[in-house]
Amino acid sequence: MKYISTRGQSPAQSFSEILLGGLAPDGGLYLPESYPQFGDDELSEMRSMNYRDLAFAILQRLVTDIPAADLRTIIDKAYTPEVFCHARVSTDATDITPLLTLEPGLHLLCLSNGPTIAFKDMAMQLLGHLFEYVLAKTGRHINILGATSGDTGSAAEYAMRGKQAVNVFMLSPHEKMSRFQTAQMFSLQDENIHNIAVRGVFDDCQDMVKAVSNDHAFKHANHIGAVNSINWGRIAAQVIYYFKGYLAATKSNEQQVSFCVPSGNFGNICAGHIARMMGLPVKHLVVATNENDVLDEFFRTGVYRPRGSANTYHTSSPSMDISKASNFERFVYDLAGQDGAQVKELWQAVDQGGAFDLNASGLFARVKDFGFQSGSSSHAERMATIRNTWGQHQIMIDTHTADGLKVAQERREAGVPMLVLETALPAKFEDAMQEALQMSPDRPIGLEDIESLPQRFEVLDADVDAVKQLIVARTQ
Ligand SMILES: *Cc1c(COP(=O)(O)O)cnc(C)c1O
């Protein structure tokens, strides 16, 4: 299996070759040159598989340049009940992604049982082992530089902690993350994890990462890499739980299900789209956004109009506060019939701060063939959904999952199970849960006193040279 760029002008590469990089050289995103197909027989075989078997069955068709036995070992190390141990009491952690039924036909697919109690662990944990393996094979090392406002940074650090040939330098805005999120990251004592608290806001952190990445000489000399949301390995890992969710919610391959996905950068739901392209019987893929509704606007109108960071709202589902959806280009490539030249033209407008409209070209009319629907949720609706879910089911859901459930309820159809992807546990967003329910969510076992653990971090000014000096000093 080779990987090609959505802009059609980069040479085809193998999985291992694109794993450590970000964008393709032509500025596009990598996708497999064709989607492997899983038919009736394969789906039937999958019905008796556990998460690791299923992950292997799918990934061996996407990762053809790592020997099968090695890939199997990597998967077995990544998806263990010990790592994904924070299940709700009402579900079973040995399932890795258990299905929790709210009422007949409406389910939560629980993806937040990993170390940082958010779905990003599902992909990051695999990525950590894949990075270590590929780096060892090629005798290279990497210094991952990232910016975080909470979820991505902690998932990356827990995945990369203690890994050979990997250092992580994670910038976060000083004293602006929640106490829980700060404690999660800063309590890591691993030598290869470097927490950098920047005197500034998240945008300052992100600008510093961009500035370092644009200094090609520095980047090359210091082996700077990233684990951002466009990484193909992350998308590939996320395809697995769509299959797992489908198989858990159905008894025969004749049945269809729909998924509703709390969305920001379009990474999670892009994996759902790919699962559907691989033959998974999915009726609808429902995009749920918060007040930052750039994606909902597209699926309602055919116009994609990124907002710019000055026009991005800070909401109570903060991990979905995005101005543009980095992975959306992957879907548009398929929508355009794998026409890289057309995608290149569309993103020329976007990259210059503009928008595009797919009505005139007829592409928007094709969106329904891909099963997409959408909806959005406001703060008041999010709070009401959390309260209703607690009142009716005695189940506490976090603010992001609440956005998904709100939209899912609008889009449910008789006879088609609706699976809402649970993207974080409520313990991660205590203030919002207090506001909704006037009580604090339970802390998963082992995380009760995380704020009292010793913390390890350095404070820096929002100064690119200071970050560069720190990276050099810590890696020499
Ligand atoms: C990252 C994140 C999302 C958004 O996922 P995308 O892949 O960016 O669409 C939703 N909810 C939570 C809790 C997240 O951390």
Concise account of the structure shown:
The chain has 476 residues and is of the alpha/beta class. The protein contains 19 helices and 15 strands.
How many strand elements? 15
Percent strand equals: 5-15%
**Which ligands appear in the coordinates?**
pyridoxal-5'-phosphate
- Specify the structural class: alpha/beta
Could you report the average pLDDT, rounded to the nearest whole number? 95
Per the CATH scheme, the topology name of one domain is Rossmann fold
**What distance separates the N and C termini?**
38 Å
What is the CATH architecture term of one domain?
3-Layer(aba) Sandwich
In the sheet with the most strands, the strands line up as: 3-4-14-9-10-13
Overall shape: it is: globular
**Rg from Cα:** 21 Å
At the first level of CATH, the class of one domain is Alpha Beta
If helices are DSSP runs of H or I spanning 4 or more residues, what is the number of helices?
A: 19
The residue ranges in which pLDDT falls below 50 over 5 or more consecutive positions are: none
Largest sheet: 6 strands, mixed
